[in-house]
Amino acid sequence: MEFSGRKWRKLRLAGDQRNASYPHCLQFYLQPPSENISLIEFENLAIDRVKLLKSVENLGVSYVKGTEQYQSKLESELRKLKFSYRENLEDEYEPRRRDHISHFILRLAYCQSEELRRWFIQQEMDLLRFRFSILPKDKIQDFLKDSQLQFEAISDEEKTLREQEIVASSPSLSGLKLGFESIYKIPFADALDLFRGRKVYLEDGFAYVPLKDIVAIILNEFRAKLSKALALTARSLPAVQSDERLQPLLNHLSHSYTGQDYSTQGNVGKISLDQIDLLSTKSFPPCMRQLHKALRENHHLRHGGRMQYGLFLKGIGLTLEQALQFWKQEFIKGKMDPDKFDKGYSYNIRHSFGKEGKRTDYTPFSCLKIILSNPPSQGDYHGCPFRHSDPELLKQKLQSYKISPGGISQVDDCGFSLNHPNQFFCESQRILNGGKDIKKEPIQPETPQPKPSVQKTKDASSALASLNSSLEMDMEGLEDYFSEDS
Amino acid sequence: METFDPTELPELLKLYYRRLFPYSQYYRWLNYGGVIKNYFQHREFSFTLKDDIYIRYQSFNNQSDLEKEMQKMNPYKIDIGAVYSHRPNQHNTVKLGAFQAQEKELVFDIDMTDYDDVRRCCSSADICPKCWTLMTMAIRIIDRALKEDFGFKHRLWVYSGRRGVHCWVCDESVRKLSSAVRSGIVEYLSLVKGGQDVKKKVHLSEKIHPFIRKSINIIKKYFEEYALVNQDILENKESWDKILALVPETIHDELQQSFQKSHNSLQRWEHLKKVASRYQNNIKNDKYGPWLEWEIMLQYCFPRLDINVSKGINHLLKSPFSVHPKTGRISVPIDLQKVDQFDPFTVPTISFICRELDAISTNEEEKEENEAESDVKHRTRDYKKTSLAPYVKVFEHFLENLDKSRKGELLKKSGKTLCLSLLSS
């Protein structure tokens, strides 16, 4: 494929130039790639990078950035998806190339709206921060130079002249001497976050920045450049989108939840209604178990609960007829009039199965969606217990589920990355029915990954923003039909 | 000098704008050498006319256009705004969203009212020689930082006409700074935080940034005379209780006792210093850092800036050589070399210089034949004969520095092209 437009130069990549073209495991993506690739590779690279960025997002929500767990999990994601991350490894050309090309492809998909841009920039920044954090010290200067950043380390004489001032200014420096610390001299305006808080020494319009603080500046530079680049990309987008081969992919990319969505049933009709009570204690994730229990006890669930639980049931294999029967039976026990149910509720159930209105076959909610949208309030039973309930109450609940005390206090790695309630169900069923993946504690359902004290960082709100935009099309129109609520 | 009658303003302003306002220097400043096309033409001015009529988005084609309009409208107040993407007086014809503020000097406004909680002599719009030192210290501290820390070269300090001072930083690169960087600069320069409900407004950490250290050194030069003598901040129980509120309770009793026994603020301050340093050496307290003495000095003397004035590129600020409608004083440039001697009460009022002009003119009229011809000559010499002259000189010195810089830049650039053309030839 070829792209017209001045952005894409045509060069042929000679074999022995391979390593020279990617001297580092990380980069600022200043130059777009300039080779021909097949449409299939184009698509695969794009999808892989979306997976990577979504992992970056998930990990950023589940763990404090920079902690050992965060770092090691991110590294394994990168390794799994075959993107570059670490210097000094052998055979790094291919991962670096994949990294380079996939970034630029995603620019096309994510430049299209403010929310998409913000999300893309945030994840790319987190990724860059991680890669920079594991860069060995002796490689840093090389990398900065190659990236055309005007960051020059000052000479030893210059350091000695200003030693006291620099040490007195920088919180990241302890002690009274500079020792072998590298100090970079940069124009003050490039160190905004440092000088505004008086965290750096200023002299004659320059900031004298220790290496530790350079990272923040680099990230800001990166953000600014990427932001500009995305704006430019958006302008040349019409030309790209007119290419029929690319249009569907680009549109789809930014809306994708890249895991399985559990909407296509291989197991439709395999569950019978009288199994549900037992299954709820054996294989339902805590959120759904809680909803089921509430439904049985109150013979009713509010809107949010009906949504979350109803779609989950569809995902585990309930047919429309079963669902209608299931809900009606329960609601009637709550002294609801059968006709009222038919009028108010059954339409909605059919709608969620794609049999009414727009006929969108709605997909069961992923964990991220449950955690980040529509937090439960008084009288609600939906949401994620690990996010939305009090840690003490959660503990009690898990105890009542007869999970061993060890299992409760340990939020252990169950060996796979859990991010969908239906995934929990599938894995659990597989284990119970003697499936191939025997994990560490196979008898009880594992306490899944999201910790009780999942941090509510500002990442959550940016993730929410992107989530809302990407999943809006799932929810569109559904709200209107749910007029009944109590 | 003191008599100024605001009702005379219309007549006085007429004379001022016809004979005294230094148009050519003023134009020389805002035109910035004519290096950028339409820089002056895209500059916004705002006028406040008689009866508080306020008009924005004024702009002018050249110096003579400016003169004519000012003489026609006789503004009570003149504000300078930003340089826009289009002529401000045509902004309504521009497509929505396309009319943008692009450049402006970095400005600071220091107002005596912001110190009301720490000055005992005056409040609100009043000033007196006892509290004016606050402005002196502010100018010294801020100017040093702008020059030595930020490397800004062209800084014009102006008396606001009543109760404060303004600073205009006019370097070419500074005029292009974003709002975010401007805010950052104000933050860097800010130490006194908190409103009425906050007692202790300055907290220093273990490490003292060079900016703070150098500022304290400046304050030290003035503190005894300003705070301990003129303001007498430890004069009596009422006043020293305010200072005790800034130090840990554990040393209150000891200080109260020694204060009672002392006779004046100087003695009490000595006691406070001793007790405070002893306290710091003994206890490591999180709430009160190791620098009690300095924190008090800073709260009483360190400059207080209004961030809103500085951060917006389109913010309008009172123009130099504008008249203050309430005091009649001219907003004159301050000579940095003589900042300690600057006395706002000797700044000429518009009525004073108009009277000076009248006195001189009646003497000279007898010598002149051609009115029209001498009119121009008059205008270029008139202000020189009044008390406005030394201030215009300060302004001219500032303009010369701007010129020198510009020439230096051009030489550098042409030098570069010369080298390049030599290399490629």
UniProtKB/TrEMBL annotation, chain B:
GO terms for cellular component: alpha DNA polymerase:primase complex. Coiled coil: none annotated. It is an enzyme of class 2 (transferase). Keywords: DNA replication, DNA-directed RNA polymerase, Metal-binding, Nucleotidyltransferase, Primosome, Transcription, Transferase, Zinc. Its EC number is 2.7.7.-. Gene3D superfamilies: DNA primase, PRIM domain. It catalyses: ssDNA + n NTP = ssDNA/pppN(pN)n-1 hybrid + (n-1) diphosphate. Its cofactor is Mg(2+); Mn(2+). InterPro entries: DNA_primase_S, DNA_primase_ssu_euk/arc. One of its GO terms (molecular function) is DNA-directed RNA polymerase activity. GO terms for biological process: DNA replication initiation; DNA replication, synthesis of primer. Belongs to the eukaryotic-type primase small subunit family. PANTHER family: DNA PRIMASE SMALL SUBUNIT (PTHR10536). This is DNA primase. It comes from Homo sapiens.
